[in-house]
Amino acid sequence: MRDLAARLQPGGRVEIATDHEGYAEWIEQALAEEPLLENIHAPQPFLREVPGRMRTAYQIEWLKEGRSLCFWSYRKR
After folding, report:
1. pLDDT given at position 12
2. pLDDT of 28-75, one tens digit each?
3. How many CB atoms lie within 10 A of CB 18?
4. Domain spans of the chain?
5. Measured between alpha carbons, how far is 33 from 59 in angstroms, rounded to an integer?
6. How far is CA 36 from CA 2, 20, 24, 65, in A?
7. Domain covering 2-76 in this structure, CATH number
């Protein structure tokens, strides 16, 4: 996460999504521990649905399977 954050321009954003609970826990911790990044959706750690975002074919399939989705939006300080 440090390498990713270092390469962003100030104000640059990183968007991450997953349907895998174990991976979601790792993503959440890695993002929260990176001081160069700030959570755009704070105080919520992530969103389950992004307003105005079109669903992908994968997302539609995952939702039909009952999977939980997690979306993070962080920006470089």
Report:
1. 98
2. 999 999 999 999 999 999 999 999 999 999 999 999 999 999 999 999
3. 19
4. 2-76
5. 27
6. 8, 25, 20, 36
7. 3.40.50.150
